[in-house]
Design goal:
It is globular, with a radius of gyration of 22 Å. It is an all-alpha fold and 481 residues long. The chain has 23 helices and no strands. It starts with a helix and ends with a helix.
């Protein structure tokens, strides 16, 4: 086996070892779900950043930028990073004071059990594409570094099993500690590789940036026609708002040691994500100047392989080790976090309702069992879908945009909001979205925007016309408001 393969083996052993070590802190279901609400600012910031800086940031977004510029990647990293900042500014402190296990607990306290279950299901479904994208990326990486000896499907199985080991044992504790270590590897590794490729391109980094600017890649203004404008808005709003009612963000807020850390960690994590999301785009665009034939060969066949192929072809072994270490760190941190979040939601907000008298030990066992079951579903989806990594991530938040976002914001900031309004909003938004996905999926206006508009109108009309009073808030909800 070559040096790169040996490095990957050692890296995975070390990563799993760190995660297993962190599992010693798990003594209850709350430790497993939110790390005992004890994480300091640097760990919260690291785990926010690392969760979002996944396979799409290194493999999916860069080739899209090469083809379409900033307009094509407005959803990620720009709107996804802004989502984290908005969460920090608007609701992080409020959510932290509520002392909840999941974000879906808020919907139960504010609107009741039916709304809780509907939102929980939409959140779980939204994660399927995102987690599958990370697992698919692991398969691609193992296939590349083994020079084809390990198939993509076998690579996905190997990667998922490794991530499962420490996620099952340590939950949020293991995820947070490994994320902290992996953030360091990601940041240092990506900066080093960008420095290396800058030295290979004539004119250096300034030439790469000026070339991209002259080619119109750095503009945020879409073409001035209805199709382009609505596509731009649809992609941006889906990620900006649809990502807010997500369990992975809430877990990081709830895991902080106090509300100041919860707020600051979300804001800093989002800012770091936007900033470092530019580096892989730089790498990919620099490759178009360094080896245009390589890019032309892969752009229409498998654009996700442009940056890895360039690293293998041009970089010395040390740089390859650094790059694939950073890439594996990015994917592993996202995979573990996005595997844990929907599993906790399904356990806490759906299954637990059927077993109200279970002990905490039984609850912890159920959470781990759901993590294992969800991993199996994700692996099957990743193996049989033809969608690209970027497409899987970009489409992941349509369901939460039309179902969960409006009731969340109304629940915090609009007193008349009640359970009838929430149900009309969610059911109406979801039905209209699905209807337009069937009858006009490629229309001028993206289907999720129709659903989003109906969700807003439904909340207003349903709440104002309903004679039912809003459910009395719990003590924690009152404190948070």
């Amino acid at each position: 086996m070559n040096t790169l393969v040996w490095f990957v083996i050692l890296y995975w052993v070390a990563s799993v070892g760190i995660g297993v070590f962190a599992a010693r802190f798990v003594r209850s279901s709350r430790d497993f779900a939110v790390a005992g609400r004890a994480l300091p600012l640097y760990v919260v910031t690291a785990t926010v950043f690392s969760t979002w800086f996944g396979s799409e940031a290194v493999l999916g977004i860069p080739p899209t930028f090469v083809e379409e510029g900033f307009v094509g990647v407005i959803s990620d990293p720009f709107c996804s990073g802004m989502c984290l900042i908005l969460v920090g500014l608007l609701i992080a402190r409020k959510l932290y004071r509520m002392n909840l296990m999941t974000i879906t607990d808020f919907y139960r306290n504010r609107y009741g059990r039916t709304v809780e279950v509907i939102v929980a299901l939409s959140i779980v479904v939204s994660y399927l594409g995102w987690v599958s994208a990370q697992i698919k990326a692991l398969g691609l990486v193992f296939n590349v570094i083994s020079d084809g000896a390990v198939s993509v499907n076998i690579g996905m199985v190997i990667g998922l099993v490794c991530v499962l080991i420490y996620t099952l044992l340590g939950g949020m504790w293991s995820v947070a500690i490994t994320d902290f270590v992996q953030m360091i590897i990601i940041v240092l590794g990506i900066i080093y590789i960008c420095f290396e490729i800058s030295g290979m391109v004539p004119g250096g980094a300034s030439h790469v940036i000026s070339h991209a600017y002259e080619a119109g890649k750095l503009s945020f203004i879409p073409e001035m026609n209805a199709v382009a404008i609505f596509a731009f808005l649809g992609a941006g709003l889906t990620m900006l708002f649809g990502s807010i009612p997500q369990q992975d963000i809430f877990q990081r807020i709830a895991s902080a040691k106090n509300e100041n850390v919860a707020q600051q960690g979300s804001i800093l994590g989002g800012a770091f994500y936007i900033a470092f999301g530019l580096f892989p785009m730089f790498l990919c665009y620099a490759t178009t100047l360094l080896d245009p034939e390589l890019v032309a060969q892969l752009i229409d066949v498998d654009s996700q392989m442009i940056v890895p192929a360039m690293i293998i072809k041009y970089m010395p072994m040390f740089a390859q080790v650094v790059f694939f270490g950073a890439l594996l760190s990015a994917i592993q941190s996202s995979a573990s976090a996005t595997l844990l979040a929907p599993s906790i939601t399904f356990s806490e907000n759906i299954l637990k309702g059927f077993f109200p008298n279970m002990s905490d030990r039984q609850h912890l066992f159920m959470m781990r069992a759901v993590v294992l079951g969800f991993a199996g579903v994700v692996l099957s989806f990743a193996m049989y879908t033809d969608s690209s990594i970027f497409e899987m991530v970009e489409n992941a938040y349509k369901s939460t945009l039309v179902v969960a976002f409006v009731p969340l914001m109304a629940g915090f900031f609009w007193k008349p909001a009640n359970n009838t309004g929430a149900l009309v909003s969610m059911i109406g938004g979801a039905l209209v979205w699905v209807l337009f996905e069937i009858i006009d999926p490629e229309g001028t206006i993206p289907p999720q925007l129709y659903g989003f508009a109906v969700a807003i109108i439904g909340m207003a009309i349903g709440s104002l016309l309903s004679r039912h009073r809003p459910q009395p808030p719990t003590a924690t909800t009152t404190d948070a408001a």
